[in-house]
Amino acid sequence: MKITLTVNGTPHALEAAPDARLLDVLRDALGLGGPREGCGIGACGACTVLLDRAPVSSCLVLVAQAEGHAITTVEGLAGPDGALSPVQQAFIDHRAFQCSYCTPGFILAATALLEQNPAPSDDAITEALTGNLCRCGSYRNIVEAVASLRRQG
Amino acid sequence: MSMHTGAPVGVGVPLLDARERVTGAVPFVGNMRVPGMLVGRVLRSPLAHARIRSLDAAAARAIPGVVAVVTAADLGRETGPVLHYGRNVKDQEVVASKMVHYVGEPVALVSAETEEAAEAALAAIAIDYEELPAVYEALEAAQPEAPRVHEGMDSNVFVHAKLRHGDVDAGFARADAIVEETFTSPVAQQTSLEPHVAIAQWADDALTVWTASQAPFAVRTALAGVFRVPEPSVRVVVPPIGGGYGGKGGMRVELPAAVLAWFSGGRPVRVLLSRAEEFVTVTKHAASITIRTGIRRDGTLTARQITCHWGTGAVVENSAALVRGALVRLVGPYRIGAVQVDSYGVYTNLPSAGAYRGAMSSQATWAYESHTDALAKAIGMAPVELRRKSLIRSGETFATGETLHEVYFHECMEACLAKLGWDAPLAQPGGHLRRGRGVAVMMKSTNPVSRSECRLELGVDGVLTIYTGTVEMGQGTHTALAQVAAGELGLPLERVRVQGPDTALVPFDTATNASRSVGMMGTALLNAAAALRERLAGAAAPLLDLPPDQLSVAGGAVASAGGRSLTYAAVLAGAGLPSLDATGEHATNVGLDPETGQGVGSPHWHQGAGACEVEVDTETGRVRVLRYVGASFAGRVINPDLARLQNDGNVIYGMGPALLEEMVFDAGRVVNPNLSDYQIPSLRDTPDWLEGVCIEHEEGEFHGIGEMTLPPVAPAIANAIEDAIGVRVRALPISAERVLRELDA
Amino acid sequence: MDYHRPTTVNEALALLARLGDDARVLAGGTALAIMLHNRLVAPDALVSLERVEGLRSVEGTPDGGLTLGACVPIAAAAAHPLVRRHAPALAHAYGVVGNVRVRNQATVGGNLAEADYASDPPAMLAVLDARVRVAGPSGERTLSVGELLVGAYETALEPGELLTHVEVPAPAPGLRAAYRKFTSRSSEDRACVGVAAAAALEGGVCRSLRVAVGAACEVPTRVPQAEALAVGQPLTPALARRISEAYAEAVDALDDLRGSAWYRRRVIAVEVRRALEEVAG
User: Among residues B356, B281, B309, B362, which one has the least CA distance to residue B158?
Assistant: First the structure.
């Protein structure tokens, strides 16, 4: 079917099977390398994208379901001048990754959390991020990076 | 000429490509799109042991969009791929010809224009199997009457490695107590989030493979062997990879990709494994370790006897070397009067086992460090006191007969104890929750025989490029090498680039494994830098009218004592050189006598420790690790931030096999090949308090720390559990159910 | 494959009637996407409920009950002020489903219609006496959760029927409820045992008690004889222990990777008791 996907603010008209996974369309049709398949069952979070600013597993979203919604991938976070988003910068400053296969997923999950809740408690940070898996085990630095962006007061 | 050791070493800078890592722009192989690329897929055996009565691929070949279907009948011809291959033993077939030996063994390969066509082709290949008896456990498979995994073999035991040091019988006779225990570890999976993926393309009798591999040169050798072409005809390119943990250490997915590409008329073919396929492609060795130790009342260890059966699956791959190498990893970092080790590699009808971060040491440390607490208990000594008394020290003789140097087991352990607050009172929450503390220390060898070369090239623009075969998989070695190079040549880090691995561009390196890279490649780099400084001095000498030995090379310039100096760029320009390069090498070649296991086990020894506090729910058996501290001996730390990440990451990774990870089989079929049924540690599973320590010493060498804090995790937790509730778990993983059963017993 | 986006329940029902077995209903899709991708199902058409009016809101009823549209995302149900006020334990049960991404996508209705035994909300809905509204070719009917869930991955929904709403009655006076999710492996695991409990307490005396064990058995399981032990009694530790042991004995516990039947019975005895202690305050 003909589908229009709005990804990182840009509409893309494309032809796809309605049950194609959003993940595959983003990667193969739109050439985005940020969303990555880790488990294919929504358990690892490597394919996280934001759908209307809420994190979802793009391996579980059918492309037809994504039509009419704003899709954000990690490629859409930096400013037009290439300036990194605060979350991206905090991940660098806190060394919050090793192999970084999982990193876009964590960054998007953290971005959504901080938009929704600019001053999350430690528990809220854990709750928002614990569904993303990092096999290299950079969790401590990831939490520190997100906590550093907590609005004070 | 003076030596320059610059500031960048010891500084915690981010990974060189940090920006790519946070913007999703890392060029993982899975993100590559080569024009004309086909989908490559593998048809796999559904049975653990069977004879192939017939195979008919005609219907698959007729499906539109299918480019190549490869069966055993297509292999072993005059040219092109052979049928049989293997790294240590030729016990593998590119695709099975007559027999299959494990569920998941490749039986046919397909390349196609689309995923759908490939899928349809796999479904259209008709195979008739005759099922045969199979064996899954190493101990059972080692029995003389066990079904043979490979026909015509006398035994399923493919290697029996031996270590004989001193008179164990006399040692046991001198003991006041003898403790014997058996510890088991199940089959597990490395579970890098990035799956195995390779793209292969043939052009003009030359093969190029882009792959997520830890061992580009080993893959090159293996592929050259399969296609009977000279090694330079095979080019292996490895961009940054999304985790390896040992699982990407040999030729795995590159083979079907290259074979399909051979049959696909010059088209590139990509083979990308599904998560389920990962579980039948490479696994962690199951181990059953029986350890028996004699101890005197004062804590003297008089004798130790270890028998280990490693279940290696139906394919040896690198397991012969790993099982032999395990001899010295099984002993433990102790002063022991006499030691005897028997390490058996055993075929089973399961998927191939290979290195799993902390290879063989995790299984071994699980046994000997749990056992240390049992020994302490047997003589009524505190476990820490026994370790203080018996941990081996510099200048003492190890079970291989070699004298150990640079030994820091005590320091590693004491650092953990101090940080954890071992002697502070432990508050008990009361009710059904009980807390306890545990400690463990580990000793691990690195590759006895290995070699690294590194080439440095300085351009007229003053940019230094490091050509290295070391794979960047998040451990940060490229960044660390750049820091060392920047220091050695007095350049800002921004002026240093890292190229490779690409076997066509970089000199040889054994592999990125066994925590060897900063030590081996780092030393090769130091040698290359020294040679480059010499060449710079030589090039500058005529320009400055001084002999080279009166010039210093530092801070980006060549200078005389009198204060005249030329920048590197000026030297190159003055000498009319477009660039200046130098290569350095570092090689080790040690080994053990094959009959006695005496000799030198490792060029240097990996040393680590861990201590923790756990809380056990005595009603459900659930264990929470509340606090953990891990220590590594690091020689000299190049980048403390990345070192800390490796230390922490090892602890968290190690919590997987300790508490969660186990591949479960039904008649050889993995029943949990997904990340819901096979679980790895999440953020919420990690300790609330996690600390890491790197033990350094002045003028120390670079030591890898890619594994050091991992092997102690499981025994430290088990020892803490015993401290908390008085029960001993001897089988991994330490599941809640297992703990509750032990509490009941 | 055809993809339909009806905008009313009637339009959806008409499509389902016309397409018959060739169609699958798509709500959030977290479960269906995996089945489709692995070719475990291969329908000719999907009938997506994403644009159906009236299925995406949480409403309070005049008597203090709740009506949740089938397409309310689980995360929204967990966070909704009305749910948190009137049924905080239900909000909690929704809040511990899967992970944040799954909760954003999966729906209240899909969660029940999938009848996954390891899911958390069904047990809680069962003890709250929730009913589901089902629209079908021959009109609307309502079912209790117990009537809806007839086995693991098996419901009483007829072909062509659509689960449209979940109705949670107003809590009885003095009702205290709790949901406990016990995971035996990773914290991210699905429940090994889930226990939902609701007790109406008056002056420390239990007027009614409902307890359902989920995830450990094919369908949420209540043991009425054990519940009855509490009626008219204070919820003492000894009574909680008796009731929990009765549950451990009565529940037909499953054996899977999250625990053997033996282990689950042991945990049921512990977790039912802890749930009762929680509601007893």
Answer: B309
